Structure formats: C-alpha cells, structure tokens
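ok trying again, last paste got cut off:
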Amino acid sequence: MASAALFGDSSRTFSQWRKNLPFEQATSFLLPALMTQEIRKRKARKPIRRFSELGRSQRLRIIHMLKKTQGLAIGELAGRLDLSYMGVKQHCEELERQGFLDTRRRPKPIGRPEIVYRLTPKASSFFPAAANPATIKILQAARQLYGPNAPEKLLVALFREKTKGYAEQLKEGDLKTLATRLAKIRDEEGCLSEFVDGPQRLILEYHSSIMDLIEAFPLVRRLEKEMFEKVLQTHVERHEERASGLFLCTFVLG
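nice, full thing came through this time. structure:
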C-alpha cells in the first residue's frame, strides 16, 4: 500500500487519510502540496544545456530559433542568427544526426522545393520542464481516496491561486498593457510567450512546461483559458497546435 508520506505524514497510510479526513479538510494539505510542486517547477525552469552533446552554443541558438517556427531553411536561419550559411548547415546536419532536428520539403513558387529544418520531440529536453510527476501522483491519489471529482476540485483551487498571483502582478491597465505584462511574466516562466498587437490581439506561447499535466488532466486547458480571461478581463479563445517537436498555443484576446 502506498505511503502517505506524499502528504507529509509518513505515519499514516492512504486508507487512514480517507477514513479520518474529509476531502474538504484534506484540501488544506493537498493544495499546499500542489503549490510546493509549482514552486519547485519555477526553480527548475532553466533550459537543460547539453553542451557536451551540442558541442557549441550556436547549436543551442538554432534550437531556440526553430522553437518559434514551423521550420526554417539554412539561409533563413543564417540570416536571423547572423551566422555563415556553411556554419549553420554543419550545425543543422549534426543536430539532425543526434536526433534533435528533422527535415521536410517546403514548396516554392518557382523551382524545386527547399529543405527546411524543424525540431523533433527529442529537442524538448532543452526547454524548461515542470516537475509534474509528483503533482500528477498527488492528483491521482486524491482521485483514489476521494472519488473521480477530487482532482478537478484541486485543479480548480490551484488555478484560482495562480490567477490571484497573476492579478497581483498585473495590477491595472487596458487590455494591451495587461496582455503585454502577462506575456512577459509567462515568458519568464519558460512559456516562450509573446504578445502580438495587431488587428487581432494574441498571446503566442511556443512551449508548455505543463504538457504532461494537460495530457493527464485535459481539464487544465479550460482552466488555463479561464485564468487568462479573469486576469485580462476579456473573452479568450485558446487554440493548441502540435507537430513533431513543435508546439504553439494561441490565446485570441477579445
């Protein structure tokens, strides 16, 4: 039988928790445990730098540039990074050999299709990852002990706290001001966020450090959307795209 050490009390088994502690009271223990995982996640948000594998920092720059695209040709990468064509070509070929990049052919208006490089799922190791296994275990344990609705209640409470924290940081302002601030905060958290102020105002996020949590509990997508709506004080649509090692979450504002 699993130990209740997960909740900070190694002397009790899960069954004893269920017998002695109603869910409403257990929440006072479970929610801080989830928040502790959130704090640990923030402290671990620096990308993993595998210089022993990459060899040179230019390759890490290439990986970060490709993270925000659907794929780029050698010439495009060279121009954006101010590196030589041959240098970028060698780096991309080495990254492809190591399994961090793959290629696809992109049609051109004239001439043969060009080869573009894009990230593979293996490249996700270079970006901030949340320490979510323990979080997921806590939620699964709550489901086992208190029924199928327990994880949802805990996640709602967790996102309520996250919403409160964002609101305190954003303070007041119009939509553009709030969205700019939120994108900056989320970018610092490792979401690779940017605010686009155009005919349609958007917040684009090229990385999700809670993807494993989203996959385990799809409800998180709705909670994240509602959190944006509350802190930005406007209607929000959330659209998610994934292909190979690419991820893009678009929040349409207003």
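cool. The first helix runs from residue 14 to 20. The longest strand covers residues 236-243.
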